[in-house]
Fold:
Amino acid sequence: MPSILTLSGTSRFEYTPDGHGGFFLEYTKRPHIKRELIQKIKVDFENKLVPGGFNMTNPTPRGFGEWIKQNSHFTPRHASHIAAVLREMGLIKRATNNRPIMLQF
Structure:
């Protein structure tokens, strides 16, 4: 079970690949990020630079956190962990080391 940091570098968490192209976030209720959601993310964000927008109550408009909130049953908090796993999978990069966090798909 890999242990990684969120893109901000402030939180460490674990995830487990599900063997079908998705993964489980290893914390309360063990959210399952299915391959289908990852595929939708890849299609909707291909070759785009977007803000992370991981604020729980006020995610950045047109950011990844807002998109996750609008296109799944997950929250911007989940989006910060999803983005970190996608980075580990080689699907995104953190575009800068500054704030706000920008994601390059």
Observations:
- Residues 76-88 form the longest helix (13 residues).
